[in-house]
Amino acid sequence: MKNIEIKHPDIKKIKIHSQGDEFNFSNFKGYNIDISLNKPIEETFTDLVNSDILVISKSSFSYTAGLLCDGIVYYLPFWHKPKKTWITL
Prior knowledge:
alpha/beta, single chain, three-stranded parallel beta sheet, 3 helices
């Protein structure tokens, strides 16, 4: 999170999409983060695709959103190969 904030100081808010309980995300307190949990899949996917900066997880769901995203995409290596324009972490 800190590295992305440093590289993109104009970021106003970071949004995390996930499943589970907010307690599991307590380590993100102190950051300007909106934690979006257990939302409908259509809402989550649309939000990911429309991100200015998208950090994809090692999942086909976020990978597919990355393929459709026009913003900056950060990629964590896994079985799906990245697009040439993505930044590998």
